[in-house]
Amino acid sequence: VNISGNEYSSIAYDNNPWSIGAELENYSYSWFFDGKIDDIRIYNRALDSIEVNSLYELEKPTLSSGLVAYYPFNGNANDQSSYGNNGAVNGATLSSDRFGNVDRAYRFNGIDDFIEVADSPNLSLRDSATFSLWINWDERDPQNGSQSIIDKSIATAENYENYRLALQPYFQAF
To answer: Rounded to an integer, what distance in angstroms lies between the CA atom of residue 101 and that of residue 75?
Structure first.
């Protein structure tokens, strides 16, 4: 796994839940996302350039190899992959997607909204992963700090780690 230029042989894993729109830190949620999130796909492998192009070109690609979670947000936070990693919505509200289709994305308020997905072994993503999603980021205030889009918290005996997809207020993804 390559994260910010650093190579890791694997990603640590524990049984904490995944979250969408917030980070689970020290057993409470924080770093709330302010904006819309739509069409999340999570793969347990790195996609090649042809597959990434397929995701870009097609609204509903047939790419299912390694797909462990797919949240099209079609009126709910249910996982449309074969694994059923359904999300529990906490405050986020259904909204129009990037094409204007009603109830096809979730709006997060940046204060306390998130979607929690229970732990599942198929979401361990130990060796590699690909995340594909659409966002519309509303708040870029540097005083608010980073905003989590997807988070998996990891608690170990040595330290507290996590892996997450987040945005910093200066438009830098990390």
So the answer is: 11
What CA–CA distance (Å, rounded) separates 64 from 42?
A: 10
Contact 148, 133 (CB under 8 A): no
The answer to whether residue 40 scores a pLDDT higher than 70 is: yes
- CA dist 42 and 31 (Å) reads 21
**146: which DSSP letter?**
-
Direct distance between the N- and C-terminal alpha carbons of the chain, in angstroms, rounded to an integer: 14
Q: Quick one: average pLDDT of 64-71?
A: 87
Q: What is the mean pLDDT of the chain?
A: 76
Residue 2 has pLDDT above 60, yes or no: no
Instruction: Give the span between the Cα atoms of 162 and 17, in whole angstroms.
Output: 11
- Is 37 in contact with 133 (CB distance < 8 Å)? yes
Q: How confident is the model at residue 7 (pLDDT cuts 50, 70, 90)?
A: very low
The angle at the Cα of 161, spanning 68 to 87, to the nearest 5 degrees, equals: 35
Q: What is the mean pLDDT of residues 53-76?
A: 78
In this structure, what token pair is assigned to residue 32?
Answer: 């709330």
Buried b (16+ CB within 10 A) or exposed e, 104-115: bbbbbbbeebbb
